[in-house]
Amino acid sequence: MNKRTGRLLAGPYLFWMIGFVILPLLFVFVYAFTNSDGNISLEAFRTIFTATNAKAIGLSLELGLLTTVICLLLAYPLAMILNGLKIKSQSFIVFIFMLPMWMNFMLRILAWKQLLNKNGVLNAFLSLLGLPGIDILNTPAAVVFGMVYDFLPFMLLPIYNAMSRIRQDWIEAARDLGAGNLLILVRIIFPLTLSGVISGIVMVFVPSLTSFAISQILGGGKVLLIGNVIEQDFMQGNQWNAGSSLSMILMIFVLLSMAIMNLFQHDEEGTQLW
Amino acid sequence: MGKKHLIDFVDISKSYHHNLVLDEFNLYIRENEFVTLLGPSGCGKTTTLRLLGGFEKPDKGQILFDGADITNVPANERKLNTVFQKYSLFPHMSIAENIAFGLKIAKKSDAYIKDKISYALKLVNLDGYENRSVDSLSGGQQQRIAIARAIVNEPKVLLLDEPLGALDLKLRQSMQYELMRLKDELGITFVYVTHDQEEALTMSDTIVVMNQGYIQQIGTPEGIYNEPENAFVADFIGHSNIIDGIMLHDELVEILGVPMPCVDKGFGINKPVDVVIRPEDVELVAPGSGKLHGTVISNLFKGVHYELEVRAAGYEWLVHTTKYYEVGQEVDLDVIPFNIQIMHKPESSDEKAVEIDE
């Protein structure tokens, strides 16, 4: 294949990139640095430094971190258990964990809204057992619950991937050299799954930070994340400039977190998913 | 050698999924001995090594180490180290960190560890490799690091599981010399597992030939090669002519209808036996002057010798000779009594494992 046909083949992809990635980003950029009259100004950035926005950013970071930590604490032992299972049942159980991902996530979140409702299925079940009901709908706890539920597979998969690559004979070699279970975990298993853990952290933290649908549905409009503020700016307040500048800020957070993760990422085998 | 037993396997049985791998297995290993467990795949040699290493538990029986029962002692508390078939170096550590792994767990001082690393690297001829990554080393180099990583812990026994299996012939031979040198320098016991009979003959003080979970023969390399106890050992150690024979009486055996004098006694009268004759022990003589008359049916040049197939008395004899013979040439075969090995036919269940299935 000569150079020219090679370039031609890249055409549709290039068109896609420009039309659906670069141009929209440019629009956001332009809106962020202009005012409502279309003149260049930093007015939009000035207007976003309000108490509401700062609170929304703070809450987004807090809930994002919390979600990430909970996902990690759940996914790591789970990946270890899955990896220890017999080969046949292993892939089936991983499949079970992946199955919900193939359903529309809005539907799943809406289902949780029904389940978590004060008069919903969960509380009906609890009262049947004589237990006190829980009322977490429309609180940050519900939002975190929804995000953990939604993003857990993104934490589980890269860790499980990294873990399944650890050869049994490395473990045996470590044991042979005098390492007990704890030392094997700390010195062998954890370092060898670190790249998967980092991928998982990014894969969970970034969507949690930018999520708005989960907080809207399970937070009932009472939990305002940065994503919700942006959505309101665009859809309700017609403040495209402020929304764009907030998006820019959010993008900086995302890029920053990815850059930090990249510092720790030394994996050439492709454990990372992005 | 008369040295005391360091390791004793006592009545060990082990099965996987109802598949008996070792059956009432007994073996002792002396101090500072190079013992090779030799056999085809599935003979139980690797299982024996893994039982000793502590990676498997026997269903029945005891393993004694220096007189103490270690059957239930976990691998990390046994005073022996293993060199694995796949090298098994930790990929996330440098060469120095790999070698230091066991020493750090044993809480040795930094200075001691540093000394040990450079000593071990010198021993395996890889000094200066401290900070290299595992990936940047060839298979042979990785194997030597694996050996270094094991010996810095000063184990009493070094277990080696087909450590040279993945290397090419030249490298394998030079590693064989290195292993023998290491054994002499370190003065520790080597338990070596292989299916390569040449490797076993070259390096071992004692060879344990195994098949289907039973020990077939224990002996020195010379003993195993020159006096195989049964048809399996004879066939597994080098090529052999293994022929059905009848022991007419002491020192006379009938092979393919021809009585031949031999040196063996005590087999009884008119007993069916297996007869082993090494290809280099078959002599080709002028027609009319030997015991069996035959025709050369193939001739392969092997470098040091020619490998002939000679059909005589209905059997295709494998013959090694330094003289050239034409295919189709008529020759006579002769064997001196000393070179005829007589072996019992297998009778008991233990001995069933001697049957050769190829």
From TrEMBL, chain A:
Pfam families documented for this protein: BPD_transp_1 (PF00528)
Compartments, as annotated in UniProt: Cell membrane
Gene Ontology biological process terms, A to Z: transmembrane transport
Residues passing through the membrane, by range: 12-33, 63-85, 92-111, 141-163, 184-206, 212-230, 242-264
InterPro entries for this protein: MetI-like, MetI-like_sf
Keywords: Cell membrane, Membrane, Transmembrane, Transmembrane helix, Transport
Record keyword Cell membrane present: yes
Segments forming domain ABC transmembrane type-1: 57-261
Keyword Transmembrane helix applies: yes
Family: Belongs to the binding-protein-dependent transport system permease family. CysTW subfamily.
PANTHER family noted in UniProt: INNER MEMBRANE ABC TRANSPORTER PERMEASE PROTEIN YDCU-RELATED (PTHR42929:SF1), INNER MEMBRANE ABC TRANSPORTER PERMEASE PROTEIN YDCU-RELATED-RELATED (PTHR42929)
Protein name per Swiss-Prot or TrEMBL: ABC transporter permease
Organism: Agathobacter ruminis
Lineage: Bacteria, Bacillati, Bacillota, Clostridia, Lachnospirales
From TrEMBL, chain B:
Any single GO CC term annotated in Swiss-Prot or TrEMBL for this entry: ATP-binding cassette (ABC) transporter complex
Coiled-coil blocks: none
Reactions performed catalytically: ATP + H2O + polyamine-[polyamine-binding protein]Side 1 = ADP + phosphate + polyamineSide 2 + [polyamine-binding protein]Side 1
Highest taxon of source: Bacteria
Broadest EC class assigned to this enzyme: translocase
Positions of the ABC transporter domain: 7-237
Molecular function per GO: ABC-type putrescine transporter activity; ATP binding; ATP hydrolysis activity
CDD domains in the cross-refs: ABC_PotA_N
EC number in record: 7.6.2.11
Alphabetic keyword roster: ATP-binding, Cell membrane, Membrane, Nucleotide-binding, Translocase, Transport
Primary role: Part of the ABC transporter complex PotABCD involved in spermidine/putrescine import. Responsible for energy coupling to the transport system.
Similarity comment: family membership: Belongs to the ABC transporter superfamily. Spermidine/putrescine importer (TC 3.A.1.11.1) family.
Subunit annotation: The complex is composed of two ATP-binding proteins (PotA), two transmembrane proteins (PotB and PotC) and a solute-binding protein (PotD).
PANTHER family: SPERMIDINE/PUTRESCINE IMPORT ATP-BINDING PROTEIN POTA, SPERMIDINE_PUTRESCINE IMPORT ATP-BINDING PROTEIN POTA
Protein name per Swiss-Prot or TrEMBL: Spermidine/putrescine import ATP-binding protein PotA
Gene: potA
